[in-house]
Write a structure and sequence with these properties.
This protein is mainly α. The protein contains 6 helices and 4 strands. It has helices at about 5-20, 25-35, 70-90, 110-120, 135-145, 160-170; strands at about 95, 125-130, 150-155, 175. A two-stranded parallel ribbon has the order 1-2. Strand 1 (about 95), helix 4 and strand 2 (about 125-130) form a beta-alpha-beta unit. The longest helix is centred in the first third of the chain and has 18 residues, at about 5-20.
Length: about 180
């Protein structure tokens, strides 16, 4: 112990400094930007930046007071999915995500995304809602159970893309990536 005391104290201090640095916004942004730059999709848009704002639901009065509740990340993904829906000629959309709020278990993220998509012009019969999942792994399994096709275009935040793609591929899907543009 006495022989390596100085080295041990140095390692502890270096670990604390590294932990502090990783918890600061500039370092977090730098790491997030590097991850987001690695996400590319097959459209002409090339590199995109993902959305790092919190997930979940919140009021969106600019949507005409329709009672739609979505956080900015979820709303960004929904708008990107609707844009893809329009250019693709009306593919079937699957909105996945349960309620992350135990105080409002009847309001799922998938339902909020579906309501938003309908308000933006998507036909209701072109939307499948999977609202039982609590995480991405459950979403992938539940979508596999309700969707017969095995080719999907996955719209999710760039920082969430790698993990999501792996989970959907494990369910047998051939995944095309499509992160929202911000």
């Amino acid at each position: 112990m006495r022989k390596y005391h100085r080295a041990g104290v140095s390692i502890i201090w270096m670990g604390l400094v590294l932990l502090y640095a990783l918890s600061t916004q500039p370092v977090a942004d730098g790491l997030m930007n590097r991850l987001e730059r690695s996400i590319r999709h097959s459209s002409r848009e090339g590199k995109t930046r993902g959305d790092r704002r919190p997930c979940g639901r919140s009021e969106r009065p600019f949507l005409g007071g329709l009672g739609i509740t979505q956080a900015e990340t979820s709303l960004t993904r929904t708008v990107a999915a609707v844009a893809f829906y329009r250019v693709s000629g009306g593919v079937t959309m699957v909105m996945a995500g349960g309620s992350g709020d135990p105080t409002q278990p009847k309001i799922s993220e998938a339902k909020a995304m579906s309501d938003t998509a309908v308000s933006l012009g998507v036909r209701k019969d072109h939307i499948l809602v999977e609202d039982a999942s609590r995480n991405t792994l459950e979403s992938a399994a539940n979508v596999a159970a309700i969707l017969k096709k095995k080719r999907i275009v996955l719209v999710t935040s760039a920082f969430h893309m790698h993990r999501s793609v792996r989970m959907f591929e494990k369910q047998g899907f051939k995944v095309t990536r499509r992160p929202p543009r911000t």
